[in-house]
Specification:
The chain is α/β, with parallel strands linked by helices. It is built from 10 helices and 5 strands, in the order H-E-H-E-H-H-E-H-H-E-H-H-H-E-H. The protein has a single domain, classed as P-loop containing nucleotide triphosphate hydrolases (Rossmann fold), CATH 3.40.50.
Length: about 260
């Protein structure tokens, strides 16, 4: 199986930038409206999982995707190398702690899938233990969804030559120096190995389906993910709760209010 070869990182040839950008603005407005309802309803939550190689634009996507949404309704968390404390627990222990509360949208900028990717490519964990993690992640995601958290999993598909250009910009552009990491270039040397592991992840951890999004261009990336999030929220259809008051009703008489 080679799923990534079936997905053009430039996006479908039928997509037109001007139309997609107009559609995106409507989708971002929908995300605002339904995020507000989700927060008010306070019964369910959404987890957006973003995975992709360095330079695929996860940070920029998050910034644009929720630019209309109140910061009180969204959390963002990045999973880096496990701390000493985290390593004393099972690998999902630190993930449980960051799952969204009722009413919230949480974004994982990298996620629990790093605990399959990194040891698969760099070693440090027996193959049989890595295999167990595929099933454990499926069980974990199923449990989350059964308890009211809708999960949207996105792989941000960028071509190697486009990634190289973006990484080079971090060296050549002073205001992007803070983004640079020598490790990103070292990771790039293992591109083929990472892609092989991603293919296994798409196959073995698809109980909650993956969405492969074209990320060579910012507008295709933003359109595709905003549609996923907006469509998910609309399908969930969160509702504003009714008024809870012992003193007032929606049709109270204004004349009775004293000032």
């Amino acid at each position: 199986m080679n799923l990534l070869k079936k997905h053009d990182p430039n996006g479908p040839s039928s997509w037109r930038k001007a139309k997609m950008e107009r559609d995106t603005q409507r989708l971002l407005a929908d995300i605002y409206e339904y995020s507000k309802r989700l927060f008010a309803e306070h019964q369910r939550s959404v987890l957006l999982v973003l995975q992709g190689m360095d330079g695929s634009g996860k940070d920029g996507l998050i910034r644009e995707l929720f630019k209309l949404v109140s910061p009180a309704w969204v959390n963002v968390h990045s999973f880096k190398a496990p701390s000493v404390e985290e390593l004393t627990h099972d690998f999902l222990w630190r993930v449980h702690d960051k799952m969204p509360e009722k009413g919230m949208i949480t974004v994982f900028n990298r996620s629990h899938y790093e605990d399959i990717l990194v040891p698969s490519v760099y070693g440090g964990l027996a193959a049989r233990d890595i295999e167990k993690r595929y099933k454990q992640i499926n069980d974990f995601e199923r449990m989350a969804e059964e308890n009211g958290t809708k999960i949207i999993k996105v792989y941000m598909n960028i071509a190697p030559n486009v990634q190289a250009k973006k990484l080079r910009e971090r060296i050549d552009t002073p205001e992007k120096h803070w983004k640079h990491s020598d490790q990103d270039w070292e990771t790039r040397e293992h591109w083929a190995e990472f892609m092989e592991v991603y293919e296994k992840i798409f196959l073995k951890c698809n109980d909650v389906p993956w969405h492969i999004v074209p990320c060579n261009r910012n507008w295709t990336k933003l359109y595709a993910v905003s549609k996923l999030v907006a469509d998910t929220l609309k399908k969930m259809d969160p509702q504003f709760p009714p008024l809870k008051s012992d003193k007032f009703t929606p049709n109270y008489e204004k004349a009775r209010i004293s000032y």
